[in-house]
């Protein structure tokens, strides 16, 4: 009966040991998906790590199985018993892993995940952190490949990753168990028994969103600055634009775009230039973003990827080559290494490489394009200094680049750095081939006026959005360029610029839910290009276009806009989550009217929070939707509250609540901040309880036990431990009589 004792106690010891040694590197996954899957997710991660983790890569895995083998060897007290006990314990461990996975599958079927909906990731979590946690980095290439190809990984590919470490860990486990069971003297083993009895008194992010997101940034910068009025210039040298766009929701988006036919980026002896890339057909873009900088893109672009925005790494490097990934692999590797060196991206690593046919992206079917997407955890706040010191001097020394440089140096373009900083921001630089990109949808339209014979062109740029800039119950508004840019100096065009443009713009009709007509705006813009001036003057917009010679300065006060329209009220909407003594969590949403007019028919909707965590969140009291407030006077505030109970582990992220209201007969919407609250990670006892519960559910499903499955499992476990203890006690009594 010593085999039974070894099996039961050895299994329990291994399980407890695995949870006590679970690496903190799993916290990104636990914090993100733990609230949905609960303790079973932490259970799965723990067992997966200690079974499928490579013992040669993770010393803790090797040490754990070695220690577990020693425990089993001491308990088995013999080579035969150890040989019998070890496979049963290892098999039971894999069985527990299967139960945890089964529970997760059952949870998925009853949550929004079954519809492909992911919960918002907590702060600091993105694909770079998720795909680099232990063990998961082994599966990451397979998972990304399957997501991008819309097909499940093959059994063979999965087996090639999983089976070798599983076999290796089992060999370590049984070898140590047998060695201890065979090598320890019988007397020592008996003393160990007596001593023991006495002491006994735990995405993919899909590839496509990242590629689309990065290319959308490039497209927007160039389309906003150059589309429609950037004419072919020969020879091309330098173009620049700084444009502020006033959105119908009262926010302002600032675009900065600079393009040069001879750009060189260099640092520490490493350099990359337009001339060195000539003929390779490459588009290289370093994109650094912060605070959801893609959120202000038109809905038509973001509808399919908005749920993954938070998973974008802080820094992306996107390389495009004509041809297959195999043919361009060495070029991409060399370019990415150089970019990583220039920008101090020490952790830059390949996220995915994917060849696509031209027909799938609107190009000729005979063409083939390879996308390379690299990721890094370096945030925009770190990249900003590199831009100021490395990129901007390489682009130009004067002109509109000074506005961009000042924005980065003053941290105005770094969200959260100061009280006046923008809400979200992105900066980008790289090289593009106009002829190569001209065949892409949208991108081609934005650069169609560049000469097709032009070589590789270098670019730098940025985009940032600030909310609550334009707000008033008045229908007449005036905004100056300097106010929108938070810039006090004058506007100066570069002396050798082929095209310069500065001013205030309007979203294209239909973009960003634009309810305004261009005729509602009266713009003042400045340019040094006669063809651009002719286009702007003849367009539908009521534009006052100033032609300025290259090298000439323009007071920013002359660059402004006056327009009519009702914008949203100036509201302050704040959400907070707080733990209560009862163990529940209180959700508070405070709405304060900072405007000058009354608001009517307020409606609060926070149902998205509960929808994301179905099965792991329940409403205790109150409601996440409320329409009881009929009016809100200027300066007044209202608080919406409801109480929830959380049953998962990790960090719950509550998405912004939405407030609908009526202002002067027009309905508007405002959103709050997002808020987080953390539930402590489960210990071994809680995890064991989750497994018991999962096994009980399995019994209920397969044996129709009428809801008593968990009780049956607990009774069986207690009975087995009691039997093992009794038999071990009999062995102890026999030893005392010797």
Write the layout of secondary structure elements.
Blueprint: H1 2-20, H2 27-37, H3 39-52, H4 59-76, H5 79-109, H6 127-130, H7 136-149, H8 155-183, H9 186-200, H10 207-226, E1 238-246, E2 252-260, E3 264-267, E4 270-273, H11 274-277, E5 283-290, H12 299-302, E6 315-322, H13 325-342, E7 349-357, E8 368-376, H14 380-395, H15 401-409, E9 424-432, H16 434-437, H17 443-446, E10 457-466, E11 476-480, H18 481-485, E12 491-492, E13 499-505, E14 521-527, H19 530-538, E15 542-547, E16 553-554, E17 560-564, E18 571-579, E19 585-593, E20 599-605, H20 607-612, E21 617-622, E22 625-626, E23 631-632, E24 637-646, E25 650-654, E26 658-663, E27 666-671, E28 675-679, H21 684-703, H22 709-736
Parallel strand pairs: 1-13, 14-15
Antiparallel strand pairs: 1-2, 2-10, 3-4, 5-6, 5-9, 6-8, 7-8, 9-10, 11-17, 12-16, 13-14, 14-17, 18-19, 19-24, 20-22, 20-23, 20-26, 21-24, 25-28, 26-27
Helix pairs in contact: 1-4, 1-5, 1-22, 2-3, 3-5, 3-21, 4-5, 4-8, 5-8, 5-21, 9-22, 14-15, 21-22
Protein described:
By secondary structure, this protein is α+β, with helices and mostly antiparallel strands. The protein folds into 3 domains: about 1-200 and about 680-735, no CATH class; about 210-565, no CATH class; about 570-680, Immunoglobulin-like, CATH 2.60.40.1230. Helix content is about 40%, strand content about 25%. It contains 22 helices and 28 strands. Strands 1, 2, 5, 6, 7, 8, 9, 10, 11, 13, 14, 15 and 17 form a 13-stranded mixed beta sheet that branches. Helix 3 (about 40-50) crosses helix 21, helix 5 packs across helix 21 (about 685-705) and helix 9 (about 185-200) crosses helix 22 (about 710-735). The chain is globular. The two termini are about 20 Å apart. Mean pLDDT is about 75; it is low at about 190-235, about 295-300 and about 510-515.
């Amino acid at each position: 009966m010593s085999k039974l004792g070894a099996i039961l106690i050895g299994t329990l010891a291994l399980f407890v040991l695995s949870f006590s040694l679970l690496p903190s590197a799993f916290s990104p996954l636990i914090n993100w998906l733990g609230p949905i899957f609960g303790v079973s997710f932490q259970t799965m991660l723990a067992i997966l790590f200690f079974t499928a983790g490579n013992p040669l890569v993770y010393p803790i895995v090797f040490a754990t199985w070695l220690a577990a083998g020693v425990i089993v060897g001491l308990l088995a007290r013999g080579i035969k018993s150890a040989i019998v006990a070890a496979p049963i314990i290892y098999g039971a461990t894999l069985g527990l892993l299967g139960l945890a996975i089964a529970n997760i599958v059952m949870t998925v079927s009853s949550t929004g995940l079954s519809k492909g909906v992911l919960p918002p990731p907590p702060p600091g979590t993105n694909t770079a952190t998720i795909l680099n946690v232990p063990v998961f980095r082994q599966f990451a290439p397979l998972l990304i490949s399957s997501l991008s190809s819309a097909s499940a990984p093959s059994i063979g590919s999965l087996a090639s990753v999983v089976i070798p470490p599983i076999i290796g860990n089992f060999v370590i486990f049984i070898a140590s168990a047998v060695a201890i069971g065979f090598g320890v003297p019988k007397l020592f083993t008996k003393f160990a028994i007596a001593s023991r009895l006495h002491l006994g008194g735990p995405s993919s992010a899909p590839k496509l969103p990242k590629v689309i997101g990065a290319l959308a940034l490039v497209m927007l910068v160039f389309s906003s600055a150059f589309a429609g009025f950037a004419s072919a210039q020969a020879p091309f040298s330098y173009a620049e634009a700084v444009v502020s766009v006033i959105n119908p929701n009262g926010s302002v988006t600032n675009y900065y775009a600079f393009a040069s036919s001879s750009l060189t980026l260099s640092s520490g002896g490493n350099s990359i230039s337009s001339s060195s890339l000539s003929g390779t057909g490459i588009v290289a873009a370093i994109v650094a973003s912060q605070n959801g900088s893609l959120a202000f893109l038109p809905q038509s672009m973001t509808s399919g990827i908005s749920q993954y925005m938070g998973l974008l790494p802080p820094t992306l490097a996107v390389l495009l080559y004509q041809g297959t990934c195999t043919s361009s692999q060495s070029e991409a590797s060399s370019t990415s290494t150089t970019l990583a060196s220039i920008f101090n991206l020490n952790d830059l690593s390949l996220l995915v490489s994917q060849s696509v046919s031209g027909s799938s992206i609107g190009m000729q079917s005979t063409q083939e394009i390879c996308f390379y997407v690299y990721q890094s955890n370096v945030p925009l706040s770190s990249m900003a200094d590199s831009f100021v010191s490395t990129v901007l001097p390489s682009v130009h020394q004067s002109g509109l680049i000074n506005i961009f440089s000042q924005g980065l140096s003053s941290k105005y373009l770094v969200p959260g750095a100061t009280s006046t900083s923008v809400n979200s921001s992105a900066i980008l630089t790289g090289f593009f081939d106009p002829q190569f990109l001209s065949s892409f949808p949208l991108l081609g339209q934005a650069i169609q006026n560049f000469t097709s014979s032009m070589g590789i062109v270098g670019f730098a740029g940025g985009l940032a959005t600030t909310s609550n800039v334009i707000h008033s119950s008045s229908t007449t508004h005036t905004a100056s360029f300097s106010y929108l840019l938070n810039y006090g100096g004058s506007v100066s065009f570069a002396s050798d610029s082929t095209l310069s443009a500065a001013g205030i713009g309007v979203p294209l009709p239909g973009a960003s839910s634009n309810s305004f007509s261009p005729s509602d705006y009266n713009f003042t813009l400045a340019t040094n290009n006669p063809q651009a001036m002719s286009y702007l003057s003849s367009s539908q917009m009521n534009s006052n276009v100033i032609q300025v010679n290259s090298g000439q300065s323009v007071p920013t006060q002359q660059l402004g806009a006056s327009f009519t329209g009702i914008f949203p009220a100036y509201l302050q909407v704040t959400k907070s989550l707080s733990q209560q003594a009862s163990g529940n969590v209180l959700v508070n949403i405070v709405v304060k009217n900072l405007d000058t007019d009354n608001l009517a028919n307020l409606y609060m909707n926070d149902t998205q929070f509960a929808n994301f965590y179905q099965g792991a969140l329940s409403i205790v009291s109150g409601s996440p939707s409320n329409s009881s407030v009929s009016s809100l006077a200027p300066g007044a505030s209202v608080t919406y509250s409801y109480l929830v109970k959380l049953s998962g582990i990790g960090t719950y992220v509550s998405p912004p609540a939405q407030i609908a209201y009526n202002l002067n007969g027009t309905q508007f919407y405002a959103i709050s901040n997002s808020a987080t609250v953390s539930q402590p990670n489960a210990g071994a006892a809680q995890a064991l309880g989750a497994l018991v519960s999962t096994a009980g559910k399995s019994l209920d499903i397969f044996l129709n036990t009428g809801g008593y499955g968990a009780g049956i499992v607990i009774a069986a476990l207690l009975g087995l431990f009691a039997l093992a203890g009794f038999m071990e006690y009999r062995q102890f009594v026999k030893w005392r009589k010797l």
